[in-house]
Specification:
two-stranded antiparallel ribbon, about 160 residues, Four Helix Bundle (Hemerythrin (Met), subunit A), 2 strands
Length: about 160
């Protein structure tokens, strides 16, 4: 892939990610603070852990793309400071748009540079921007399935839900 194509693809993915951010925030906002320990299965993350995962890793992946290398995974324990949906929303709004802006500023050459994801995958940086988008949407989808069992309403994601009609 040449640098011009990489920049075009990145611009598309950045716009798509930016649109998805609003939906992600609506889903996090819908999480009831009274059920943060809810988990549908013993193998699943609880609601708070999943909220933290989305917020921290959306920022982390984007910053790794902007840095041209992957760093250690973020600490998603209580030490991260995200203790409820309101705190998650505040951190997401403060950090994820800034990380996305860093990616937006990358040149086509930087977007075609190969990045190594812990020895598992080596790909152009722009490919990891696509991964960031998929990762965010995937985990947001997980979280949205927790909402009704926790007694919350599911916000519109790609249109109305049974709770928003």
């Amino acid at each position: 892939m040449d640098s011009k194509a990489a920049k075009t693809i990145a611009d598309f993915l950045i716009a798509d990610f930016q649109n998805e951010m609003q939906t992600t925030l609506r889903v996090i906002e819908a999480v009831p603070t009274t059920h943060l320990n809810y988990t549908p299965d013993a193998k699943s993350k609880n609601a708070l852990a999943l909220v933290r995962h989305i917020v921290l890793e959306d920022e982390w992946i984007l910053n790794c793309v902007a840095n041209g290398q992957f760093s250690a995974l973020p600490d998603d324990s209580d030490a991260c400071g995200i203790m409820n949906p309101a705190g998650a929303i505040a951190q997401y709004k403060a950090k994820v748009p800034a990380a996305l802006d860093r990616v937006r500023a990358l040149s086509g050459e930087k977007l075609t540079a190969i990045i190594d994801l812990f020895g598992m995958v080596q790909a152009p940086a722009v490919n990891f921007l696509a991964l960031a988008l998929k990762h965010s949407v995937h985990h947001r989808g997980q979280l949205s399935t927790y909402l009704r069992p926790m007694g919350a309403k599911v916000p519109g994601i790609y249109g109305p839900t049974a709770d928003t009609k």
